[in-house]
Design goal:
The protein has 7 helices and 11 strands. With 252 residues, it is α/β, with parallel strands linked by helices. Helix 2 links the parallel strand 4 and strand 5 (74-77).
């Protein structure tokens, strides 16, 4: 299989300044992503792998180029029109794919700010992608701790009611709900070749389920501190996370 791994990180961040340059437990965040890629390369020598970094941040480029384990990372300059706060990430991934001008079987995006991600999570998502050709994309999710059918509400008129109307009296009765954790996306190249006008969830989307503790958006210093604490906790209890961490430390 011919795989393009994309890593997207713009300079700065409106919610949390320079979050893509942060170190978590002594390791730059981007090294956790590169570590998973390297573990995948080592385990799947049959695949033809390309890695591309789309950014307008020279410091991020420097961090990536300082390491020598994931070689030949292609640098794609972030276009000014794709560097704003409201740009959909899929547009950046699409631009990366188009700029490289090669054919791939799958385009896999790995989020920089998702250090709680294991090799098995990437493999499981790619298996879901391969086994379901009807999907235009597959995204990673975790089981939701709240249900829109049972204990999530929104304002409707003058009052607050359940987001999804239902007669369920217990959470267990409600259909299974999932949260996107933005950690891994796999796209059909044919999908990326077309102009994308709707949100990705309006297309034929499949999911791959990760453990429910592998979710936390880093949008503030407080989020980062919580993630760092969770990372320390789970690295000692999850050998697959520990493998990624120990491998990432080699990149220093």
């Amino acid at each position: 299989m011919k795989v393009l791994f994309t890593i997207c990180g713009r300079a700065g961040s409106k919610g949390f300044k320079n979050k893509n340059l942060k170190e978590m437990n002594g390791v730059p965040l981007v090294y956790y992503t590169l570590s998973v890629i390297q573990l995948y390369v080592d385990k799947h020598p049959e695949d033809d792998i390309t890695v591309a970094l789309n950014t307008d941040s020279q410091p991020l480029i420097d961090i990536v180029q300082m390491q020598r384990y994931v070689k030949d990372v292609q640098i794609v300059a972030r276009k000014p029109e794709l560097a704003g706060d409201k740009v959909a990430k899929v547009d950046v991934i699409r631009d990366t794919f188009c700029e490289l001008g090669a054919e791939y079987d799958v385009v896999v995006d790995l989020d920089i700010t998702s250090p709680l991600r294991r090799l098995m999570d990437v493999e499981s998502l790619l298996q879901e992608y391969s086994e379901n050709p009807q999907y235009e994309l597959v995204t990673s999710v975790v089981p939701a701790r709240r249900s829109p059918y049972f204990n999530m509400v929104e304002r409707k008129g003058d009052y607050y009611k359940k987001i999804c109307e239902s007669g369920f009296t217990t959470r267990q009765e409600a259909p299974a709900s999932y949260e996107l954790n933005a950690s891994i996306y796999a796209y059909r190249p044919e999908f990326l070749k077309e102009k994308i006008t709707d949100t990705i969830l309006d297309h034929r989307c499949g999911v791959s389920v990760m453990e429910d503790y592998l979710v936390l958006d880093i949008d503030s210093e407080e989020d980062f501190q919580m993630m760092e604490g969770l990372h320390r906790f789970y690295v000692e209890r999850d050998n697959d996370l520990k493998e990624v961490y120990e491998n990432a430390k080699r990149f220093l």
